[in-house]
Amino acid sequence: MPRPPCCRRVAGRPAVSLFKPAGIPTRELAEVVVTLDEFEALRLADREGLYHEEAATRMGVSRATFGRIVESARRKVAGALLDGQALRIEGGPVRPDSRGGGCGHGRCRWRNGEGKEA
Q1: What's the chain's Rg over C-alpha atoms?
Q2: Of 44, 72, 108, 113, which has fewest CB within 10 angstroms of its CB?
Q3: Residue 89 buriedness (CB in 10 A; 0-12 / 13-18 / 19+)
Q4: Has this prediction a pTM greater than 0.85?
């Protein structure tokens, strides 16, 4: 059994949490869920143009983990666009980007405020 993921730092929630093709009711569409950490990885890498090392530091994860997160996000977004699916942004092992305090996840390095500082 894999260990549970540590919480990842995110800047906040997106303004809109659901995207869908125009003219098709949501109930008729398959949904792809992009987690908040995947959304944050896309924002840092593709919108802000950060290198993986800097983006990983901002999220409080390793560079390799960041690479896996952004790869998963890109695959989901591409699939939703190409297959005409709805894209929902929600959930994931995240915590707001604020200093101090733990996230409440028992095995997380953010417990007791011990995570990396950006």
Answers
A1: 15
A2: 113
A3: buried
A4: no
